[in-house]
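Recall the central idea of this unit: under ordinary conditions, the amino acid sequence of a chain determines the structure it adopts. In this exercise we apply that idea directly, starting from the sequence alone.
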Amino acid sequence: MSTKKAWLIILVSLIDDIVILAVVIGVLWYFKVKLPIWAMIFIGLALATFIFVRTWVVLPSLRRKKVTGAEGMIGMTGEVVTSLKPNGVIRICGEYWNAKSLDGDIETDEEVEILGIQRLKLEVRRKVSWEQ
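Accordingly, the structure predicted from this sequence is:
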């Protein structure tokens, strides 16, 4: 997710804070409650701090990779159970899945990386090893 989109989501989520602040100010005005200026400044700074900290905590969670469903499986590693020529079966986290190799034939016991999912068939390639 792009940074601009993440900040847009956060700005839209701030609308409820603005509404709450408007309601509080409206209630104080309706009941003719007089607050000293230092109290208004303190309340404003406390609310601004709360909103800033909450926003700072939420932003990284918007950028995180999805961990559930089909999107969560992309990038995971599995082990070939039956040779992929190009179709076969792989095991991921103890589950068996039909798979199609996008990287040529892959033999049994090799590690593969999931690139995508087409219906209930995983599209995989050999896991790239950086060790030489």
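The chain has two domains: 3-63, 69-126.
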